[in-house]
Amino acid sequence: MRDTLVLNASFEPLSTVTLNRAVVLVLQDKAVVEQSHPDLRVRAAAVDLPVPRVIRLCRFVRVPFRRQAPWSRRGVLVRDQHRCAYCGKRASTVDHVVPRAQGGGDSWLNTVASCAEDNHRKADRTPEQAGMPLLYQPFVPTPADAMLLAMRAGERSELPEWLARAAA
Ligand SMILES: [Zn+2]
Fold it and tell me: Is 27 inside any structural domain?
């Protein structure tokens, strides 16, 4: 997979994204192509454009965390878009999947956003012990995730199928 460099509106390099994502950002008018490949084109049902090498965001975004993001409660809430991992409602607290009382630590993979109610209900139990399955799996956010979250471009992209095929 070919990666495209993303510049902020201020021309500061932010991150790289997959070609698929770059094309979607351009098609959604969220970014403009600054530099494209001289020979390669993306061709699919509704699209025919040069393969972008560098795109620049149309609006400046403030990225909440950058490469090697250290774990933080705020970072977890941003990563999970303030959605409770147990019920999907608005979350304001961070829950330890394996509770600290059972040796679970502060890490990206062991914490999820949670509403106060579910956090209280789950208490010092694992999701299995509490019978509260996770709606999504926690992940270590990459710089690209952070940028897309800051742009509100959605979670790890669900692309239209025709585009996923076209740009593969
Ligand atoms: Zn909840």
Answer: yes
